[in-house]
Description:
This protein is of the alpha/beta class. It has helices at 22-36, 68-78, 88-114, 131-139, 151-158, 164-176, 186-194, 221-227, 248-261, 276-285, 303-308, 328-335, 348-351, 366-378, 380-397, 400-413, and strands at 5-10, 40-45, 58-61, 120-124, 143-147, 180-183, 235-239, 266-270, 292-294, 312-314, 340-343, 358-361.
Amino acid sequence: MTPMRIVYLNLDRGIPVLGDKGASVHVRSVVTALARLGHDVTLICSRAGEGNAPPPARLIELAPAVEEAALGAECERLGLPGGALAEPLIRREVTVLAHDRALVARALAALAQAGVRPDLVYERHALFHLAGIAIAEAFGVPRILEVNAPLAEEQARYRGLALRDLADEREARSWRGADLAVPVSDDVRAHLLAAGVPDARVLVTPNGVDTRLFRADPLGAAEVRRRWGLGDDPVIGFVGSFKAWHGVDFLIEALVRLRQETPRLRLLAVGAGPKLAEAQALAAALGQGEAAVFTGAVPHAAIPAHLAAMDLTVAPYPAQDGFYFSPLKVVESLSAGRPVVAPRIGQIETLLADGVTGLLYPPNDLAACVAAIRRLLDEPDLCRQLGGQAAAQARTAWDWTAVVGRVLERAARAPAREVAV
């Protein structure tokens, strides 16, 4: 493919480009893959953040610079009453809308100053944001839109959403305004089709992994085990952001049962998040305070060494309607040569081959989950075999460079947009 000048848009201020969140990792991974494919990338974001090295791109931060007068004007356009901004949810959402309104001119000016005229806009979908459509149209270039979740639904369910109807309307416009929409799962694809995006302009693309970083390599495992006092005990692992839908409480209950037969078994739980304190309290209440090690936040570059210290990992998602995720940590674990035990739910069944790269169990079936983990602990040769097969599959199927290359190839063949957004 001929090298292109690509503008990548990450307009969600909640996703700092240099941070350790899974979404931050995703942004850096896609941008790095674009650069490895030979393209010149300019990354425009609402928040650069800190904590990790920047990806190989020209980084332009356009942080929200919204004055009170602009917020008031936005409220007038929306027909909101005069004290609406006193409500925190409304203030937050109006701030995003005002930021998006100003972004087009700011982005075009920044690109002109940098001497960049793109051949393609590649955007990560962000709630309330439509600036990407106008930026692509200003240059007369195609727009690829990654869609990692139905954000309006997610925001309303987990964090609260005051302007729900407007969020739904703008989300659908963003989706329809893509020349190629790239949902991470079949469930997200269904949302796009229901919003009127033609199937010919949709390509389901689960999350990938940086196989250069996540290798089946024990490097660093001994230091991680020493640091967390794991010795040579068998270790099951969890890596995630400790949110309600991750099911860490389920995993702690599994640990209780597993240690009845394997008393030296340890759980290494890596990550931070809103449910971390609850998970620690539950482990202590169930007598697992010393068996369960909670590391807190760990830099992304240190995750491979932590995975190397584990014998296997568990993705204990509970049964839930509309499981639209493509779990980044599952493919990272597989790429690192660690088999995964996970429920048969959503996109996990396309990432994890039962009996080949890990073991699947019926959602919410604690006994089946325990049996799957115990099997891998009792059969170390099988555990190593599945881990080796997982790493080999990751190199061919999930490497980010190959994943992004497939997206660009499909974008070149996508039909032109014919519907109004």
